[in-house]
From TrEMBL:
GO terms for molecular function: oxidoreductase activity, acting on the CH-OH group of donors, NAD or NADP as acceptor. Residues 5-170 form the Ketoreductase domain. SUPFAM superfamilies: NAD(P)-binding Rossmann-fold domains. PROSITE patterns: ADH_SHORT (PS00061). It comes from freshwater metagenome. This is Unannotated protein. Belongs to the short-chain dehydrogenases/reductases (SDR) family. InterPro entries: KR_dom, NAD(P)-bd_dom_sf, Sc_DH/Rdtase_CS, SDR_fam. SMART domains: PKS_KR.
């Protein structure tokens, strides 16, 4: 019988999701990695010893099939770290297209809902589980030229709280992590930009952007039994950004 914790990581082909999947595999979890189909996703199969399933988190039937395949393969689902997300454009809201706004909400908010709903349908009857949703510091504060992403991350935080209120009594914990800038493909251009990058470093009390491991360790903690009484929480991992 498989005694390892079965953990699903979305957005596992890149950045925070990739680092989190590697950390959890190292911890001994049985990994299920998902992302769009890509060479990087396939590589995760070798690196984690788990299974990799390509899925678009905005596609209801693909998300439901992802969870169904996980249960068919391992019989349970103990943890989810939902990292799939996008940040598409930095423009004043007056210039932002409806397409960009709706796409951002669909991937970041609807995707979080579909993944959490499918996981909850398994975890609630199982009477155990832990789900980590990926918010941002922008779940609680504003940022210039970023209306769609900021709105979406605020919604992810409130989604996490609502799910925690509904499901914690069934033994399913839901928490939202709030990274500040992290060195991943999503933020690398800003971090490397001489002006924006210098401003970011000055803005962060610790003086540097997060590494993906900084975030992965916190996700692993929230999934672990050490966090057994933590639910409905928003945990910033921001080098002090929100303290300023
Ligand atoms: N990098 C940062 O500075 C930062 C800061 C705060 C929050 N976050 C959040 O952390 C999460 C991970 O971001 P990252 O920095 O690792 O970015 P990333 O771009 O490196 O990785 C995101 C992954 O999500 C996948 N993805 C996007 N849309 C998808 C979809 N519809 N279906 C399936 N997979 C999809 C991409 O293919 C990619 O592999 C995101 O939710 C992001 O908003 C990032």
């Amino acid at each position: 019988m498989n005694t390892k914790k079965v953990t699903l990581v979305t957005g596992a082909a890149s950045g925070i999701g990739r680092a989190t999947a590697l950390k959890l595999a190292e911890r001994g979890d049985q990994l299920v990695c998902t992302d769009f189909a890509s060479a990087q996703l396939q590589e995760m199969k070798d690196l984690t010893g788990g299974i990799c399933i390509a899925a678009d988190v905005t596609n209801e039937s693909e998300v439901d099939a992802l969870i169904a395949t996980t249960i068919a393969e391992y019989g349970r689902l103990d943890g989810v770290v939902h990292c799939a997300g996008i940040e598409e454009s930095f423009v004043d809201a007056r210039e932002m297209t409806l397409e960009v706004f709706e796409k951002t909400m669909r991937v970041n908010v609807t995707g979080s809902f579909l993944v959490a709903r499918a996981a909850g349908r398994v975890m609630v009857p199982q009477a155990s589980g832990s789900i980590v949703l990926m918010g941002s510091i922008l779940s609680t504060v504003g940022y210039g030229g970023n209306a769609a992403y900021t709105a979406s991350k605020g919604a992810v935080l409130q989604l996490g709280r609502a799910l925690a209120v509904d499901w914690s009594k069934f033994g399913v914990r839901i928490n939202v992590v709030g990274p500040g800038p992290v060195a991943t493909p999503m933020s690398q251009a800003s971090i490397d930009d001489p002006v924006r990058g210098a401003w970011l470093r000055e803005r962060i009390p610790i003086g540097r952007p997060a590494t993906t491991d900084d975030i992965a360790g916190v996700c692993a903690f929230l999934l672990s039994d050490e966090a057994s009484y933590i639910t409905g929480t928003y945990l910033p991992v921001d080098g002090g950004w929100l303290a300023l």
